[in-house]
Specification:
334 residues, mainly beta, Neuraminidase, 14-stranded mixed sheet, five-stranded antiparallel sheet, 3 helices, 6% helix
């Protein structure tokens, strides 16, 4: 059994309910469509073969997304036959700023998908607006109506799927949305802090474990980093104390280069990446006692999620021309 090692003075403060700005945005545009976006998927991916000893099934994107140098896939979460993914934007020569983060909804049955821009809603003198959300978005958890997006040292941001909004063709906000038709406004944030003398937890990736949100840190080299959990309420939001803080509980440490982690029945599964030319690894076990499964995933595995109904683990890989959504049977890793 994984033994907690304490909270180490770690805190997450719930900040800024942006309901007023989101309502104003919905009133100005075609309004909220929520999960209705799944009826308007405009890109076509495909089933694919992907390298990796543990890979059972794989899907990939269209050619433009496979080769794109601006957008890099990171986080993954699965709901039924739909995979949700985060991508963060690198700033290319000639860009006037980062395009931020987008979320992809990929239907496994039809292989169709759509990108939705994740935005920070604003309200200035009663006028709604949107801004890019510039975080690395290394992890994603889809919990009920909520999508939690990792923001590294800042903590994480939360959006409500029901707030997903469609912009009109002639909407001036289409320019601010980089011509994306759909935007998902962030509804609130959970800001990371730590008591004096402590080390702030980095929210490099996220996953869910029943009633818990699982958090882990990336570290270059062989240095091990922390794995932690945060209790979730039935509505999918973190449980907070009377002061408005959620308290992460550190459970131990994982290997260096962690990109994603899940905990299943007290057993951990952790992905590590080894560059664009070497296959990735999956580590199994518990903090202090991990075993490495070499060549388990394609090169560049990122976040990790678990689907209990099918006993499968899912990851997404990031490198251009080597971008796959991969399903792995749990039994192949034990």
């Amino acid at each position: 059994m994984t033994r907690p090692v304490g909270s180490a003075g770690l805190r997450l403060q719930h900040q800024s309910d942006r309901t007023a700005a989101i309502d104003a945005l919905a009133d100005l545009t075609d309004g909220r469509v929520g999960a209705g976006v799944l009826d308007d998927l405009n890109r076509r991916g495909s089933r694919a073969w992907a390298p990796g000893r543990a890979v059972d099934r794989a899907w990939t994107f269209d050619a433009a997304d496979r080769r794109d140098l601006r957008w890099w896939p990171q986080g993954v979460s699965v709901r039924g036959a739909v995979v949700a993914l985060t991508w963060y934007a690198k700033q290319l020569p000639g860009d006037h700023g980062s395009q931020g983060v987008r979320i992809t909804f990929f239907d496994l049955a039809s292989c169709r998908y759509r990108h939705v821009l994740l935005v920070r809603p604003t309200l200035t003198d009663g006028a709604p607006g949107i801004e890019p959300l510039t975080v690395h978005a290394g992890g994603l958890v889809w919990s009920g109506d909520h999508l939690h997006v990792a923001a590294t040292g800042k903590g994480f941001h939360t959006a409500r799927l029901s707030d997903l909004t469609r912009l009109r063709d002639d909407d001036p906000l289409r320019t601010d949305a980089f011509d994306y038709r759909y935007v998902l406004p962030v509804s609130s944030s959970y800001r990371a802090s730590v008591d004096d003398g402590g080390e702030r937890l980095r929210y490099s990736f996220l996953s869910s474990d029943g009633d818990d949100l699982v958090v882990g840190e990336y570290a270059a080299g062989e240095a091990s980093r922390r794995l932690a959990r945060i209790a979730l309420q039935p509505d999918g939001l973190p449980a907070t104390d009377a002061s408005g803080y959620a308290v992460p509980e550190v459970l131990g440490e994982g290997p260096g280069h962690m990109q994603g982690a899940v905990r299943v029945d007290e057993r951990w599964y952790v992905t590590t990446s080894h560059g664009r030319s070497r296959l990735g690894s999956v580590w199994t076990g518990a903090p202090g006692d991990f075993s490495r499964r070499r060549w388990a995933t394609p090169m560049g595995p990122e976040d990790l999620t678990y689907v209990p109904e099918t006993e499968t683990l899912w990851t997404v890989t990031e490198h251009p021309w080597a971008r796959w959504i991969c399903a792995m049977g749990r039994a192949a890793l034990d």
